[in-house]
C-alpha cells in the first residue's frame, strides 16, 4: 500500500496545478468569449480561403512564396524543415499523437485526453473532407523543387491542419 501513495501524489499534482491556476468566474467568462470570438474569426477566414481556392485554380503569390522559401540557403535550413515536417507524416504522426494522449491520460487528466483525441480526429476529418471538396493539385516539379512526391491534394495542408488542430491545442 505504501508504494501506491507516491503514484497517487504524482497523479494529484496536475489537478492541484489546475485548481491553483483557475481564474475567477468573470475572468473565465471573458476568456471563453474571447476564445469563441477568435474561433469564429479563424473558421470564417478558413471558409473564405477555401472558397477562394475552390473558385480560383491557383494564386500567383503561392508560387512566389514557395520559390522565395526554396531560395533560402542557410546551413541546416533544409534539415530543419525536414525535421519540422517529419512528425506530420504517417506512421509517426499517429504514434506521437497516441503517445501524447496516453501521457495526458496517465497523468489522470481523463477529460483532457478525450478532448485531445477529439482535436486530433476532428482536424484530420476536416482536412480530408476539405481536400475531397477542393481537390487542388500539388505543384509540379517544373514549377517548384519537389522534396517528396505526394499523391493527395494540396489544400488544405495536412501538416498545418494537424499541427494547429492537435499540437496547437496541446500548446493552449
Structure description:
This protein is an all-alpha fold and 172 residues long. The chain has helices spanning 4-21, 25-55, 60-70, 77-85, 92-106, 110-134, 158-171. It is built from seven helices and no strands. The longest helix has 31 residues, at 25-55. The two termini are 36 Å apart. The mean pLDDT is 80.
How would you summarize this macromolecular structure in one to three sentences?
The chain is mainly alpha-helical and 172 residues long.
Please supply descriptive tags for the structure shown above.
172 residues, mainly alpha
Topology:
Blueprint: H1 4-21, H2 25-55, H3 60-70, H4 77-85, H5 92-106, H6 110-134, H7 158-171
Helix pairs in contact: 5-6, 6-7
Assembly type of the chains comes to single chain
Question: What is the CA-based Rg, rounded?
Answer: 21 Å
What is the helical fraction, as a range of percent? over 70%
N-C termini distance: 36 Å
Query: How many helical stretches?
Result: 7
Helix- and strand-based class?
mainly alpha
What's the number of extended β-strand segments?
0
Mean pLDDT: 80
User: How would you characterize the largest beta sheet?
Assistant: none
Shape: globular
What percent strand? Answer: under 5%
Stretches with pLDDT under 50, minimum 5 residues: none
Order of helices and strands, N to C?
A: HHHHHHH
